[in-house]
Known about the structure:
Blueprint: E1 2-8, H1 14-27, E2 31-36, H2 41-47, H3 53-62, E3 64-67, H4 81-88, E4 93-99, E5 112-118, E6 128-129, H5 134-147, E7 157-158, H6 164-180, E8 185-190, H7 199-210, E9 217-222, H8 223-232, E10 239-242, H9 244-257, E11 265-269, E12 274-278, H10 295-307, H11 311-327, H12 347-365
Parallel strand pairs: 1-2, 1-3, 3-12, 5-10, 8-9, 8-10
Antiparallel strand pairs: 4-5, 4-11, 6-7, 11-12
Amino acid sequence: MSYTVTFIPGDGTGPEIAEATKKVLEATGVEFIWDIQEAGLDVFEKERNPLPVRVLESLKKNKLGIKGPITTPVGSGFRSVNVALRKELDLYCCLRPCKSYVGVQSRYANIDLVIVRENTEDLYAGIEYQRGSSAAAELIATIERLSGTKIRSDSGISIKPISEFGTRRIVKFAFEYARENKRKKVTAVHKANIMKYSDGLFLEVARDVAKGYPDIEFEDRIVDNLSMQLVQKPELYDVLVLPNLYGDIISDLAAGLIGGLGVAPGANLGDDIALFEPTHGSAPKYKGMNKVNPVAMMLSGVMMLNYIGEKEAAKGLEMAIAEVIKEGKVVTYDLKPRRDDPTAATTMQMADEIVRKLKVQEAKVG
């Protein structure tokens, strides 16, 4: 059986790690047909649109995609392509496992957390009003009329919608994931003590959904308290389900526990479309140097293999990646004890070593 996959190389260092990932995925023996689609900064410079309609149509048709990182300009330029993909395709769940691998330098060991982040609502919904605009002035006046709260006239405003529908489906996803993957506990993360009508709704609905899963422990944590406890006692947590903004922040914190974003995979999931991607950025200053760590995107490929039911291939690829990291010989500079180690491998050399490990596995089975 073959799988048609929308393949988005991305920009910056994206094409390099994407090519390395394609190579190891093909080496698993699973047959892929790659529908290559360009998006991001390079496309924006040519077409003035970083996310052409053809990319969305490809994902709608294939229902399955994997992408490299895409640059998001800070403060100007175009809005995040990643956010646009999630909104346009209703990829409402951002799934980010954070797992320790021996050989990756970290202050922690044996971390095994899963972040389930709501992907379409909250402050990332993109409902914003620019300082000094007539719309902002109208909104400020309306808020003052309705609530009596005065807002400075030179304010920019972002709106934070959290719905019962959006919350119910993301919390249900977290519990279903926990049950399917034999996880023991789900923790809902919020700031309901302050934002009683948005985060308060998130907590209320999470508690209601939890009643349908008596086999899985449920608890809730205020987000600032959770942040402290993840640093002090990460072993207390298992599956975390969070609104959009907290999910973004906490997933990076959790990645820090395992050694950084270079080993942190991710997936954006809807009801019938799945898009897999590393959680790190595009690192454009390293573009074309063939030196960046491809592991996060490769582990995203492992997630994709599990998603399509190729469990043995997923297991084999993860084992090969873990073995190469543990040995520490043919790894990129950031996976060496010293970042200036002259023996550091290139991106493609590391991919080749993982392919070699896969072939050794195959020979043993044969």
